[in-house]
Amino acid sequence: MSEQAKSDGFTDQGRKVAAHWSKIVISYDAALEALNAKGISAQAASANDLHAFDMMHMGGLSATDAVASAADVHEGLRVLDVGCGLGGPARRFADKFGANVWGLELSETLFETARKFTALVGLSEKVQFANGSALALPFDDAMFDVVVMQHVAMQISEKDRLFAELSRVIRPGGKLAMHEIFSGDGELLYPLAWASEPSMSALEPFAECTARLSDLGFEVGGFEDHSDDGRQHHETTAKNLREALSKASGGQDLTTWSSTDASVIAGRLKVADAMASNLRTGSLKVGLVVSTKLN
Ligand SMILES: C[S@@+](CC[C@H](N)C(=O)[O-])C[C@H]1O[C@@H](n2cnc3c(N)ncnc32)[C@H](O)[C@@H]1O
């Protein structure tokens, strides 16, 4: 791929977003260590074993399975996972559902890790990756039966360009399966899981997304509300982080405690609390929606 093609679609917002995810996700070596700690050697690791670390969305593996079932992902289909992160969902669509999968990821670090994870579990023949932007997809027109997007659009401001690109690569009769986050009503608390500050976020109400998809010639499916799963996900995370902090601090006052680990845990706790609150008040909504491209 030329340097021009590689940099196309990399906006200022995208650079911030990619840097954000590169900083917080698990590295390949750390994942191997974590597997080792569970008694799983690198040689014996399976795609299933990796799913403990590679699902970067609310609801984890069961949400990805729900997306695959809703979009009827099956053997022989060509599936594109846009903003594929560490490639967990992409591997699942191949390993459990039999699809031929492409993953597209903006962050070079995540893209490289996704490739290594996939080679580790022997799925490189079924799942391939590209490092690029959803705003300039490096794929031919009408190439895919299904395009999936899980927790990605909420950090891309150029929505018209994004959805025009998604539509371009879906064949007539093909599907767009979104497990996405939308704005609701009320005040939004930061930090969000994808945005430490507002310029990294680009939420929109589902009604606006529906109107755009209809204009692009999609029949938009019903909104399956997953907000409550999302709230539970972040509440459980917050509870676990509180326990970890209290164990690490030996019961001291956490506000005066300043080890690096503690500040990382405390930062994550702030995110989990804000996310749980936004999902409780309805200022954030999570939905699974499958739309069909009519022609
Ligand atoms: C919350 S993570 C979700 C990852 C994956 N979909 C999953 O559910 O495991 C969002 C991902 O979208 C990627 N992303 C954000 N903006 C993008 C863009 N313009 N093009 C491609 N990927 C993008 C981020 O780098 C990050 O890996």
Order of helices and strands: HHHHHEHEHEEHEHEEHHE
Write the CATH homologous superfamily.
Answer: Vaccinia Virus protein VP39
Tell me the count of domains: 1
The CATH class name reads Alpha Beta
Helix coverage percent of residues? 40-55%
Count of discrete alpha- or pi-helical segments spanning 4 or more residues: 11
Could you give a short account of the major beta sheet? Answer: 8 strands, mixed
Structural class: alpha/beta
Assign an overall shape. globular
Structure description:
With 295 residues, the chain is α/β, with parallel strands linked by helices. It has a single domain (3-228, 281-293), classed as 3-Layer(aba) Sandwich (Rossmann fold). 44% of the residues lie in helices and 18% in strands. The chain is built from eleven helices and eight strands. The protein has helices at 3-7, 12-24, 28-37, 47-50, 60-70, 88-95, 108-120, 159-169, 206-215, 227-249, 260-281, and strands at 78-82, 100-105, 127-131, 144-150, 170-183, 218-220, 224-225, 284-293. Strands 1, 2, 3, 4, 5, 6, 7 and 8 form an eight-stranded mixed β-sheet that branches. Helix 6 (88-95) links the parallel strand 1 and strand 2. Helix 10 (227-249) runs antiparallel to helix 11 (260-281). S-adenosylmethionine is lined by residues 14, 17-18, 21, 55-57, 83-85, 88-89, 104-107, 110, 133-135, 150-152, 155-156, 194.
SSE layout and pairings?
Elements: H1 3-7, H2 12-24, H3 28-37, H4 47-50, H5 60-70, E1 78-82, H6 88-95, E2 100-105, H7 108-120, E3 127-131, E4 144-150, H8 159-169, E5 170-183, H9 206-215, E6 218-220, E7 224-225, H10 227-249, H11 260-281, E8 284-293
Helix pairs in contact: 10-11
The protein binds S-adenosylmethionine (SAM).
The site of S-adenosylmethionine (SAM) has 26 residues, from helix 2, helix 6 and strand 2.
